[in-house]
């Protein structure tokens, strides 16, 4: 019989189960915190026994790995959308738009940000595949900053540290508010002065 190949329904069901498990893992992380995630809690959410999860994820760290990849891919997608909408020509304004987009993504979800930017477990290290969107975002950022004259590695590190510090301060001291978001323009101004923009 000649024709189009049949669908791989087993693979589709497996992928749907993985998505359901990851959605449940995010729900648990939002309620209890990312570090408090347990496979037992996740399994209960999806109506499985914990050992059944191992047919989809070999360990809790494999769940973290998939979540890490999702989080950074979402950030990369958001930043690409920001670039596609267009950035101002003026370097300071351009840097502010870029930084604000990242800041807004980071503070919108504390559990997600912790997974992306904090060491949540001494034995968790993301796989190359999960880490790839983070590296792609860093390269996208480096390339854009180079167009406005920021190329020194120390300058890139300083920018990352300042923005990360503001994200952490916002989440720790005023979650859901704008206390540190209001400091973004001042921080960008100080950085731009230091970078000679």
Keywords:
single chain, 197 residues, mainly alpha, 9 helices, 0% strand
Quaternary organisation of the protein chains: single chain
SSE run: HHHHHHHHH
Percent of residues in helical segments? over 70%
- Estimate the global geometry from the Cα principal axes: globular
Q: Provide mean pLDDT, rounded.
A: 91
> End-to-end span in angstroms?
67 Å
Strand content: under 5%
> Structural class of the helix and strand makeup?
mainly alpha
Low-confidence stretches: none
Main β-sheet, in a few words?
A: none
Radius of gyration: 20 Å
The strand count comes to: 0
Number of helices: 9
Overall description:
It is built from 9 helices and no strands. The radius of gyration is 20 Å and the shape is globular. It starts with 8 loop residues before the first helix and ends with a helix.
């Amino acid at each position: 019989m000649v024709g189009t190949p049949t669908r791989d329904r087993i693979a589709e069901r497996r992928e749907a189960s993985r998505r359901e498990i990851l959605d449940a893992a995010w729900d648990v992380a939002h309620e209890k915190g990312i570090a408090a995630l347990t496979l037992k809690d996740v399994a209960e959410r999806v109506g499985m026994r914990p050992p059944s999860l191992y047919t989809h994820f070999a360990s809790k760290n494999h769940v973290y790995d998939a979540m890490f990849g999702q989080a950074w891919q979402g950030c990369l997608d958001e930043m690409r959308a920001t670039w596609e909408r267009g950035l101002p020509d003026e370097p300071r304004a351009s840097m502010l738009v870029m930084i604000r987009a990242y800041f807004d993504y980071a503070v919108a979800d504390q559990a997600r940000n912790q997974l992306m930017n904090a060491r949540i477990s001494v034995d968790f290290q993301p796989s190359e595949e999960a880490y790839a969107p983070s590296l792609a975002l860093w390269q996208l950022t480096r390339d854009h900053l180079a167009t406005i004259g920021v190329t020194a590695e120390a300058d890139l590190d300083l920018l990352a540290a300042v923005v990360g510090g503001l994200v952490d301060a916002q989440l720790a001291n005023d979650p859901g508010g704008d206390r540190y978001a209001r400091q973004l323009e001042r921080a960008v101004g100080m950085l731009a002065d230091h970078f000679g923009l």
